[in-house]
Every structure is written in structure tokens, then in C-alpha cells.
Amino acid sequence: MSSPSKPSDHNTSKKPCEMDQYIGGRLRLWRRTMDVDANSLAASVGVTYQQLQKYEKGMNRISATRLYAIARKLNVPIDYFYQEAELRSAGPTNTPGGNGEAANYMALLTDGNGTDLLKCFVSIKDPDIRKAVLNLVRSIVTGDGCAQPEPVRAELSADRQNEINTGGHSKS
Predict the structure, then answer these.
(1) How many Å apart are CA 151 and CA 142, to the nearest integer?
(2) 46 falls in which pLDDT band (50, 70, 90)?
(3) Which CATH architecture has domain 14-111?
């Protein structure tokens, strides 16, 4: 007696999908934001570093039990990994501030460079320097180039402008 043939899509539910990539990206975002080392997290939840990387890249699906363990180790509610998932599945839109833009923001943040950029920007304590960095990035995005020192300096406070002009030394 022969066994019944399996449908052609038998194992498709085990293959990672877009939601697995989204959850993995959220995992990476939170881990990097909290400065948790990948090796230590992997060891603490019983997987290899390579397996954790596959989870974060969405190459392998994270089981519910493993996701629960990861959430506990990272001290984050498990629903964090699913937040804003509907934005991802809605697809891009052409409206500013629409779902596509939000999905692009999430994609940037789940990329290691995006997280690093945000951490560096947040670590800038001087509001005048933050404005200058923001103006520089805006000028690059709009294609105006990088050479716009006058508008940037015009926004600096008088004290900060004096500090820059004197090289940080006050005249006494």
C-alpha cells in the first residue's frame, strides 16, 4: 500500500516569510539599542551566534518558545516584536507620512547603520551641533551638497558662535 502523496506546498509554512524578517529586524533593533552583545544573548537563550544572526536577518523562523526566551532576556514585552507589523504588510504608499514611509523608517532602524546613526545623533548633547548635523544631512538629501556653513552658523547661539570663533577659549 503506497502512502498518500504530500501536497506540493507541504513545507512552505516552515520557510521564513516577510513577517519572520520583520520580527528578526525588530530583534536586532532592540538588541543593538540596548547594547546587548549578540554572543551573550545567543548563549543565554541556548543558540549559537550564527543562529541568532539568522533569526535577525529573517533567514530562520523563531519559534514561539525561543521568542519568549529572547523577550525575557532583553526585558521587552513579546508584543514589541509585532508592533507596527501592519505597516510592513500594507506596502509602500506615495503619500508623505504614509505606510510606505513608516516601513522605510523601520527598515533603516533594523539596519545596523541606521541604529548606529541614531545612537550617535542622540549622544550629541549640544543642541546647536545637533542642528548643524541635521542641516548637513538635509543638504545632502536635497542635493545641495555639503558646503553650507553660513546657514548652519547663523542658527548657532551667540555664545556657541563665540566659542567656535575663539577655538573654545574665552577672552579674559
Answers:
(1) 15
(2) very high
(3) Orthogonal Bundle (1.10)
Residue corresponding to grid cell 540596548: 34
Q: For the chain, what is the radius of gyration of the CA atoms?
A: 23
Cell of 130: 545637533
Residues 83-118 have pLDDT tens digits of: 877 655 544 444 444 455 666 666 676 666 777 787
Distances (CA, A) of 98 to 61, 103, 128: 28, 9, 30
Q: Domain ranges in the chain?
A: 14-111, 124-165
Nearest Cα neighbor of 149 from 137, 132, 167 is: 132
The pTM of the whole model exceeds 0.90: no
Q: Which three cell numbers stand for residue 109?
A: 532602524
